[in-house]
Amino acid sequence: MSRLSLSYRSVKRKPLVALLKTELFNIDGFGAYRCQLANGLSIIHQQVVGAPVVVDVWVKAGAIAEPWSGMAHFLEHMIFKGTDRLPPGMFDQIIENRGGVTNAATSHDYAHYFINTTPANLPHTLPHLADLLLNATIPEDEFDLERDVVLEEIRQSQDDPDGVGFEALMASLYPQHPYGRPVLGVAEELMARSPQEMRCFHRAHYQPENMTVVVVGDIPQEQTLALVNEAFGMFPPAAICPRPLVTAELP
Q1: How far apart are CA 249 and CA 251, in angstroms?
Q2: Which of 76, 146, 167, 197 is catalytic?
Q3: Above 50 in pLDDT, residue 9?
Q4: Within 10 Å of residue 240's Cβ, how many Cβ atoms?
Q5: Please, which residues have CB within 8 angstroms of residue 99's CB and are 6 or more apart in sequence?
């Protein structure tokens, strides 16, 4: 299979991102603020006094966005394989050594990545989460190893009657729309994928306009905005990647 070449739009990096707007959500006393940076990144913040901090980054890069079956979920696995500054496994070690927890998940519409930590540890953990999401290297040796993990997940899902039934239902309801495809993908198609294709998908979709950073816990809004602005202020240039044809189902 031929390798897919990366094509980048000319985008200048800016060392500082200005705050574009802030608005208050106050539904039934919820009291969260939504902010948007000038680069398009959205932030939702709520201060809860005395609570630990949860950071959850939501990316509009679920299975509906993938041109190749299973790519979004597979990428979720590969994000944790590190960057030029974080070797594989180092991110989890950093979070856990500070008493935190991290995990991720993928659906049809999104992928999301979270950390639970203390307010004092947020300045020491959030930059590493941002580094993973923005600068994942997707190493070739780890790609082959992690693909076996994803293939095993697919095999396990085929042993789950509820899961098999749900996938059959979705396929019957959405014969044309991507909702009808399994999020885990199809084994045969995953075997045909390459690290270069995944890097292309990552660089195309993990961009500020597709991300929402949610921060909840005992940390003030001003400090939250400063930390997110610094950690997510410089995105690599976006790649041009094939987009799936999304066909609306007939009523």
Answers
A1: 6
A2: 76
A3: no
A4: 13
A5: 117, 118, 121
